[in-house]
Amino acid sequence: MNDGNAIIQTRQLTKQYGQALALDHVDLSIPKGSIYGLVGNNGAGKTTLLKILLGQVFPSFGGFRLWEAQEEPAWRKNRRRCGAIIEAPGFFPHMTAVQNLEYYRIQRGIPGKEKVMEKLEEVGLGDAARKKFRQMSLGMKQRLGLALALLGEPELLLLDEPINGLDPAGIMEIRALLQKLNREKRITILISSHILAELENMATDYGFLNRGKMIQQISAKRLHELCGIYMQIRVTEPERYAALLERELHLTDYKVLPDGTIHIPGVPEDVTVYGKLAVEQGIGLLALERREMHLEDYYMHLTERAEQ
Ligand code: ATP
Description:
The chain is of the alpha/beta class and 308 residues long. The protein contains eleven helices and 14 strands. Strands 6-7-8-4-9-10 form a six-stranded mixed β-sheet, with helices on both faces. The longest helix is centred in the middle third of the chain and has 17 residues. It is elongated, with a radius of gyration of 23 Å. It starts with 5 loop residues before the first strand and ends with a helix. Bound molecules: adenosine-5'-triphosphate (ATP).
């Protein structure tokens, strides 16, 4: 497995904390230039994965490639090409935005005093440069965190739940900002969230983590194809009905959910065809409706299937 277009590629990455298996043989691949949405419920292993990439946690098994680097010290060298927000950065409440960034610029040995204002402008905090951290809104604090992550001119940003807790307007601002950085500065972005909808219209690729396992990697384009319009059918004998769909209508891409509900992508020219099939074969038709899948539903079905 070697995806030449990938900036990060993990191989069977595993992390065990005592009894807890935080990451379970995870293979993921982050394309250069992408905005990769890492989606998973609380405790799915997102933070652990990011910490491993940043060298804050050691894997128990497996490995990863960061650009061409496959081990130390090459990892350490390439980590200088990354900017990150993992957990809240420790900003000083009584210091202004400029003072906070200047503190970290010096601490990290990043040359160029002008970088501080430049990054504040870049994240839209130019006018708030003299505002004290404690007087900032959550959205402004998140943007200051982003300015800090950008100080070292990274090619790759690793962001752990940067839009957690923001209101819809705040989410839109950060989304627009990340898209701009991706487009104009060609920064590849790995962003984690437990809410798929937060990443909608932004991520170009998704990885779904559930209880430490990668349950699916999918491009946004493919996901949107899958999340189109579909028919939802409930019948008294779902298994027999599913077999009939294959035999009589030559359908293979239907789904039978754990509760027996059947989903068939698209809408047939003659919508009565599914009802007729049931009735002709003596199967009771309980419901037949046209529906549109929302991303959240897709994700929920995916995790339900993984749990089985
Ligand atoms: P959240 O959104 O809640 O931060 P997450 O997807 O980032 O969740 P992780 O923080 O990576 O998940 O945690 C994955 C699992 O590993 C959880 O079960 C967590 O309790 C466990 N875990 C994480 N860090 C440690 C640690 N230092 N010691 C022991 N267990 C840990």
